[in-house]
Design brief:
- The protein is mainly beta.
- It has no helices and eleven strands.
- The strands form two sheets. Strands 2, 4, 5, 6, 9, 10 and 11 form a seven-stranded mixed β-sheet that branches. Strands 1-3-8-7 form a four-stranded antiparallel β-sheet, with no helix packed on it.
- It starts with a strand and ends with a strand.
Length: 118
């Protein structure tokens, strides 16, 4: 399984970015997918998740600004980020997980850096 994240960059406050995570070895349409972020010295935190059943869950501080969705033809998961704030600056990581118990599998993509600054 490979997860390839892209779309990070430098954006001014109030701007938008679209992160994409292209998957191989799994089908995103039937996998729990998520985006996490991490800043230096802090733990990785969940930003948004989209379950295999279609349920979404967002970190409170991004609700109404970020949207997670699947792009099934591209076998990818997308995080649309609007009204970005300096506190959104972080390395963003794509996650895929499925199964339970001894069959649980958890995969990470490489980080893509998002910098929100004037």
């Amino acid at each position: 399984v490979q997860l390839q994240a892209s779309g990070g960059g430098l954006v001014q406050p109030g701007g938008s970015l679209r992160l994409s995570c292209a998957a191989s070895g799994i089908l995103v349409s039937i996998t729990n997918m998520g985006w996490y972020r991490q800043t230096p010295g802090n733990e990785r935190e969940l930003v948004a998740e989209l379950t295999s059943g279609g349920t979404t869950n967002y970190k409170d501080s991004v609700k109404g600004r970020f949207t997670i969705s699947r792009d099934n033809p591209k076998n990818a998961v997308v995080l649309q980020m609007n009204s970005l704030k300096p506190e959104d600056t972080a390395a963003y990581y794509c996650n895929a997980n499925f199964g339970s118990g001894s069959l649980y599998r958890n995969y990470w993509g490489q980080g893509t850096l998002v910098t929100v600054s004037a």
